[in-house]
Design goal:
Strand order of the largest sheet: 1-2-3-4-5-6
Number of strands: 6
Strand content: 15-25%
Number of helices: 5
Shape: globular
Radius of gyration: 13 Å
Order of helices and strands: EEEHEHEHEHH
Structural class: alpha/beta
Distance between the termini: 33 Å
């Protein structure tokens, strides 16, 4: 099982993992990057853990629309989320999604937070995290 914090500032963490099934209660409020995508199941894991932002790959193993299904579940929970396209990152590798991914889809909560398709994942999510830190007054 691979899970590592790759960025942290004033309590805002980015956690990279192989699968959303690895998300833990301690990841509440964190930006979670999950390489695998179980669609609605991935969304349910992120919502249950109260993640601060979830970045998924944009499709399941069959390159279906699993990512969009996961975004919808997270949006219903009020959790900003986005997907990274298969054409921009090695989808089986969350670290590559974080470093090289380009956002392909966002849910309404992410859009409201200023995250947009076409943005490089890492800078967009760092900007998201920094805005949240400023909003919190830290």
């Amino acid at each position: 099982m691979y899970q590592a914090t790759v960025w942290s500032r004033d309590g805002m963490r980015v956690v990279v993992m192989d699968s959303m099934s690895q998300v833990e209660d301690g990841d509440a409020g964190a930006i979670v990057v999950a390489a695998s995508n179980g669609g609605q199941e991935s969304g349910r894991f992120g919502a249950a853990a109260r993640c601060g932002f979830v970045l998924l790959n944009d499709a399941g193993v069959g390159k279906d629309e699993a990512g969009i299904a996961g975004l919808a579940v997270l949006d219903a929970a009020g959790i900003p989320a986005a997907t990274v396209g298969h054409d921009t990152a090695e989808i089986s590798n969350g670290a590559d999604m974080w470093e090289h991914g380009v956002i392909s889809h966002v849910n309404a909560a992410a859009q409201a937070a200023g995250v947009a398709p076409g943005a490089q994942a890492r800078p967009a999510l760092i900007a998201f995290a920094q805005a949240r830190i400023v909003e919190a007054g830290t």
